[in-house]
């Protein structure tokens, strides 16, 4: 909606709006916006998973180094 394609739809019971995810009128702009939005969200989820895996790996390496160090 912000860049000229896609549109907002009011959902039941009429208290909130969201982007239209189905293209009933066969509008490519609605489909394009839905695909763009879903792709961006998938990339964000992937980035979060990769960051969490990296943090877990680093914490595990730190734990191993501390256990090997002589006391």
UniProtKB/TrEMBL annotation:
Any one Gene Ontology BP term: positive regulation of cytosolic calcium ion concentration
The coiled-coil regions, if any, are none
Q: Where are the transmembrane segments?
A: 35-60
Which compartments is it annotated to reside in?
Cell membrane
Q: Which keywords label this protein?
A: Cell membrane, G-protein coupled receptor, Glycoprotein, Membrane, Receptor, Transducer, Transmembrane, Transmembrane helix
Q: Which GO terms describe its molecular function?
A: prostaglandin D receptor activity
Would you tell me the Gene Ontology cellular component terms? plasma membrane
Membrane topology per the record?
Answer: Multi-pass membrane protein
Q: Which InterPro entries does the UniProt entry name for this protein?
A: Prostanoid_rcpt (IPR008365)
Tell me, in one coarse class, where this protein mainly resides.
Answer: membrane
User: Where is the secretion signal located?
Assistant: none
Q: What is this protein called?
A: Prostaglandin D2 receptor
Q: Which organism is it from?
A: Mustela putorius furo
